[in-house]
Amino acid sequence: MKICSIGAGYVGGPTMVVIAEQCPEIEVEVTDVNEERIAAWNSEKLPVFEPGLDEIVKKVRGKNLTFSTDIDEAIRTSDIIFLAVNTPTKTYGDGAGKASDLTYIESAVRRIAEVATGDKIIVEKSTLPVRTAEKIRRILATNRHGCNFEILSNPEFMAEGTAVEDLRHPDRILIGGDETESGQKAVQTLVDVYAHWVPREKILTQNVWSSELSKLASNAFLAQKISSINALSVLCEHSGADVDEIARSVGADSRIGPKFLKSSVGFGGSCFKKDVLNLIYLCEYAGLTEVARYWQQVIDMNEYQKHRFARFIREKLFGSLRNKKIAIFGFAFKKDTNDTRETPAITVCQDLLEEQAKLAIYDPKVPEETVRRDLRPYPADLITITQTPYEAAEEAHAIVILTEWDEFIALDYEKIFKNMQQPAFVFDGRNLLDLNRLRTIGFEAYGIGKPRA
Ligand code: NAD
Ligand code: UDX
After folding, report:
1. For position 453, what pLDDT does the model report?
2. What is the mean pLDDT of the chain?
3. Among this protein's residues, is 349 annotated catalytic?
């Protein structure tokens, strides 16, 4: 059997790497139109940073795993084709700012229709609006070789930073397929692939539409949990309650659960905002205004949280940030990833730059050119990228923590404090540090949803 993916990004790459690791007898090929990305997958410096990924790639690359830009050949020779291309929020025309842009999916599917000469199973790995399989089916029907295509929905639930662990030990694998005999046979083929390493009871099968919608629903629930705790963080700051204590007591109820209750400067990443907006668009399209409005609040609360944090920094720094140096600790949207898509750091930094603050930014994994690209068009001389957090904090008025990198916990804050402008502030947007300890050193320290000292 041969499997290929079209799309070698954060999902296509790691997903195929783990399939190749777990199924040594299956040939796996990862393809992409982006030559630079494929070259990086074939090099020592992979385009995606994920703990544990390098080791597996070293083990299986060149054996049953290859990376290539020859998409046509991969289509022709594969039995199962995973569609793992990007599905960003549309930026133009009808549905701009909300609907999914399906341009990339359509072009990948058109390619399959054009070049396939045998029967294939097409797997929707990208996150797609419910009923996309219908559109895919119509495009594939233009194939001139009379091939039979079975379309399955198999959304990916891995989170960045823990991709390898999530892929090796998923909570569940979801496979949606047609209820026809050939549809069910295709479902079984994919079940057998995952059954190499996932316990059978964790592999859920359902109809295609449920599977497509389950992905949007899962991300909406997770994002909603964060917006709920973030909404409470504001009330905590006004009442002396501690949001982490609220999360602990609320999360101890097994019906709610302790995960995804970490209050923060806001959620980021390429999925939550995009997928909730897509859900809102689908509701609006169906005329379900109240339902759309309900989910819109999840996004609105997140935007409010990011801007509110930046505003608070300005207020505490005596209402003026002009020419003040602010050290930014962390730029990625969460720890253990080099991804900055929708990172709250962009919004917070932009708000601080609007006030003409001078930012010294340190992130252990995000390259300088990415930070500069993300903060364009703000003047380059307002932004310095440093090699260490100590350098960033040198003579700064404040430290702002925007990513929960472990290394920020163990820094020598006494040393940092001595080299800062006084009074020195810490604004912890991730509730990572012990604020009381920082206060003992002399810092004015603030967290999200934390009692004010
Ligand atoms: P990405 O942008 O990192 O990767 C997508 C890749 O597809 C790019 O390298 C691009 O060059 C390639 N591509 C686009 N059109 C192509 C075409 N016609 N032919 C060949 N290659 C093409 O995106 P990603 O983060 O990997 O996300 C992919 C999908 O998975 C999205 O639908 C996303 O919502 C979903 N998803 C992402 C995550 C995540 O954590 N990033 C998790 C679950 C699901
Ligand atoms: C998310 C989903 O978790 C995953 O199942 C889906 O496949 C893709 O989208 P990802 O965006 O990679 O994964 O990371 P996630 O761990 O969900 O974090 C998203 C954002 O929420 C990050 O900015 C993170 O810092 C923030 N977050 C997460 C919180 O602010 N509080 C929490 O309690 C959890």
Report:
1. 74
2. 97
3. no
